[in-house]
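Give me structure tokens for this 329-residue protein.
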Amino acid sequence: MFAFIVRRLVQSVGVMLAVALLAFVLFQFVGDPVTIMLGQEATPTEIAELREQLGLNDPVVVQFYHFVVNAMQGDFGLSLRQGQKVSVLLRERFPATLELSIAAAFIALIVGLPLGVYTALKRNSKLSQVFLGFSLLGVSLPTFLIGILLILVFSVMLGWLPSYGRGDTVRLGWWTTGLLTSSGWTHLILPAVTLSMFQVALVLRLVRSEMLEVLRTDYIKFARARGLTKRAIHFGHALKNTLVPVITIMGLQLGGIIAFAIVTETVFQWPGMGLLFIQAVQFADIPVMAAYLCLISLIFVVINLTVDLLYFAVDPRLRAGLGKSGGGH
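Here you go.
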């Protein structure tokens, strides 16, 4: 067990170092931060002084070492566009992105799960075909188009929901939330539904596939032979075994939702990290781009590491296989 954890931790550190190297390359080859910060009219003396302050005259290896050390402390320098610490900007935007991502994941589960079960149990019904067609649309349509269509219908034509912004928020320490105001809830609905559409389709098709597979197993046939009711078989036995891979996939998808909320945040002008990243790309704000890349990678690494460790803890077959291969000694 200890060797397994150490190996996964070493792999995670290796991934983060690779990401840090990629982020560092952004600083080296995407624009000159000195020119961006001082402008074209800076004197050679001012340029030389700033390069010395930023450590740009040091060897590349030394610069990368300082970059990694600072990144581990959450220090990515100043935003070239806004002149604020990048860590402060991310801390201000992170609550909005996390709130939107959790809402989208919740919608995906409460909508996709029952629809997946229904399409598995009633796979020949016309309504099931409608739901499956809906899932194809969710997978096929680009997110920005879904967002624009929802704005057109519910904001422009019907006027029911706002089309941009986060609404009124409440500050709880350094955290801000819109879930404690009615305006925050109404502003959350459209972007959360937009971001969840692909996830709903994914959960629906995954649950359907897993449910059909489980219903063919021998222990389900044995349960039917014992005379158990359909409700007990479908929800007491089949659904329980179906949920294990679904929950795992949704755990991994949460990282993807956070990372790929960029398009949704741009369409709805949602003040999260994704919108901050898009603005940073437009203005070549390298520190913000590098910090976003490292933070998203860290989220993915932590989620994947957690899932690996949970699998190892709950599945005795993995522990047995590790013991036979000598990895547990």
